[in-house]
Amino acid sequence: MNYEARIMTPSAVPAPDDTDELYVTAEDRASGRRVWIILAVTAVLLVALWFFVHRNDVPAAKAGAVQQAATVTVVVPGRATIAGEINATGTLAARREEPVGSVGEGGQVAEVRVEAGDWVRKGQILAVIDRSVQIQQQASQAAQVQVAQADARLAQANLDRALKLVERGFISRADIDRLTATRDSALARVNVARATLGQLQAQAARLNIVAPSDGLVLERRVERGQVVGGGSGVLFRLARGGELEVQARLSETDLAALSPGVAASVTPVGSSKSFTGEVWQISPVIDPTTRQGTARVALAYSPELRPGGFASVVIRAGTVVAPKLPESAILSDNAGSYVYVVGRDNKVVRRPVKTGLVTGDGIAVVEGLNGTERVVLRAGGFLQPGETVKPQLNTAAKLPG
């Protein structure tokens, strides 16, 4: 039979080891490509991150290492009439307090005719002291006056008859002198009796406790049945004319800025109503412990003003025409107060200033500025003289006059 038989020799069949090498090599190549791809992506991300972090950096070689100018807010203060104010607290009291007590011999209180808060007139009876004994003493003395007057009339009649008889020679001149002396003594006893009666009446009148002047009764310390006398102390306290005051405690500096007649506004604690008064007295001495003095502000009477209470006081401390800046614009160091002014070349210049009146919305600058400068409003402590800035005008920060 004629046919061709193909016989595969062992050399023609791929060895199992060679086939494994082919498969391993393909996997390694795929893994290597993945590594390169990951490295490339990582490099791109790192470059992008570096640019993101340094996006605001100015290259050092560009413009010779020139820094970007900082933006600052400036204000042109101008000039205005500034009313100074001094804020303080104080105690309400009577401007002229009048203590009233018993000035007579005293005795038992029979009647009290006023209460705290009442208005009284000068000479008005505040309390009545029992005077039954004094009434009897006055009656007795009045009788003594009548007796003395009768004796005086009798002495005068005897003298008149003697004068008619002396012309006829029945009475000597010596008798006339004696009768005249008797008449004069009788008249003197009448005067003494009358004076004693007047003394008793005055003593009885002093038993009544009366108001020394027109005013407001602040306090009553006596009741009916109480025994009072010269040593009983104060029975009533009056505010003469109803005038009140607030005694404001101020520092030496504030006191130096005041003078009598300066207007003030007083608001009692717990009340929203303010009362207008004026400084009528400034303490001539300073407390060495607190370094404070007292400014006394006179007030007219009002039911809302209660002596002994506290009140806040705003005192007008005069006026000045000057630029006014907020506190944030004024800096200070060992050399004194200063501000930063931005010049025409946008460079910062330090300008020493002298401050004046302090108000609720700013401080007056009495020296160093004319009001037309561009003054750094805030953050001046972070600037340096000569530094170039980018000024931004804030018209809303311009203080009103």
Give the overall average pLDDT: 82
Shape: rod-shaped
- The helix tally amounts to 4
Q: What is the N-to-C succession of helices and strands? A: HEEEEEEHHEEEEEHEEEEEEEEEEEE
Number of structural domains: 3
Instruction: Compute the number of strand runs.
Output: 23
Percentage of residues assigned to helices: 25-40%
**CA distance, first residue to last residue:** 134 Å
Radius of gyration: 53 Å
Structural class: alpha+beta
Can you tell me the residue ranges where pLDDT is under 50 for at least 5 consecutive residues? 1-24, 58-66
Report strand %.
25-35%
Largest sheet: 6 strands, mixed
Protein name: Efflux RND transporter periplasmic adaptor subunit
Domain YknX-like C-terminal permuted SH3-like: 324-390
GO cellular component, one term: efflux pump complex
Keywords: Membrane, Transmembrane, Transmembrane helix
Summarize the structure.
The protein has four helices and 23 strands. It has helices at about 15-55, 130-165, 175-205, 250-255; strands at about 70-75, 80-95, 95-100, 105-110, 120, 125-130, 210, 215-220, 225-230, 235-240, 245-250, 265-270, 275-280, 290-300, 310-320, 325, 330-335, 335-340, 350, 355-360, 360-365, 375, 390-395.
